[in-house]
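sorry for the late reply, my laptop died twice this morning and i had to redo everyting from scratch. anyway the thing you sent over, i finally got around to it. pasting the sequence first so we're on the same page, its 392 residues, then the predicted structure underneath. double check i copied it right bc i was rushing
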Amino acid sequence: MKNFEYYAPTRVVFGKETEKQVGSLIHSLGCQKALVLFGGNSAQRSGLLEQIYGSLSEFGISFITLGGVVPNPVLSKVYEGIKICRNERVDFILAVGGGSVIDTAKAIGYGVTNEGDVWHFYNGKRKPSSCLPIGTILTIAGSGSEMSYCSIITNEDGNLKRACNSDLGRCKFVIMNPELTYTLPKWQTACGCTDILMHSMERYFSSEPSMEVTDKISESIMRTVIHNSKILMKDPKNYKARAEIMWTASLSHNDLTGCGAASDWATHQLEHELSGMFNISHGAGLAALWGSWARYVLKTNPNRFMQFASQVLNIPCNFFAPEKTALEGIETLEEFFISLGMPVKISNLKIALTESQIEELAQNCSFKNQRTIGNFKVLYKEDMKKIYRMAS
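ok and here's the structure:
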């Protein structure tokens, strides 16, 4: 068991009609002017934005709006938001949406309060020293960004998808009304559920012995995600299932499931390059890569995969042949992904990787052969290329 610090300062307001409290929450922070940041038109069509504007006005909070945040959020939108916030003297950012909107809000928050190019916080040249306060009304469960310290942005110049990790960007509050996710397309729900599952799995597969209590929490979250994902594929307006999924999204990525262990994150790093190059949905990219990563690293610790198969997927352990149980677990999880409509190969996304693209993906993922990824098994550039080929 490793030493660890656990820090989760975000206030959670959970349940039906909680979005009506947004004005009060921002007012309690002493802020006076907000940027309301959102993605497409769904928040407008549903009437959610009008409710938000009414709540802000009730508490004397002026606001300006910025829409158009896209999946795999881009740097150009961040620059646009920074300019607006500075010109309008905004002192709070309200993200209305899912991970893409929240990550963009964090990046804008860093850019407004720090000098220089905000991209330098994402390419590792500098660290932010401050951030505008941020709050979230969650409409898509999956990324966990509402309670994490991470923000991921794609620079269109080179399609580089990079992360900035800082506690300064953690949301002051998150409003979670599961009813706001009722109208999500099945594909978005499936991608979100896959991402939630992977956030716990990236922490679960560690090269070091884990805390028993952390393992049990993680295994329970993963079982809950799998069970309720299946319900939502048939009954998208099932409140209980939506609520379970929304809460597991936050718990899986607020570091609770990583206490006392070293996380892996190799599949995420591999996927970031894939979605940076092809602009695919993050959850789908993770599903397309995970089985190949798992088979590639399996022999490092087959017993850990056997525990996952047994405790999460209810597969009987074969202690005389742990690799057999492990492989059965990998196949079973892939079958689950398929049941959600997720890919289990890159080719399922109608992408035929060429050798030159595999080289470019591995080159970018390894930072031009300057870094390794992974903890369960440390992966070098050549390992990355092999996994991309296996996943093709």
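The domain at 185-391 is CATH 1.20.1090.10 (Dehydroquinate synthase-like, alpha domain).
thats about all i looked at so far, will dig more tmrw
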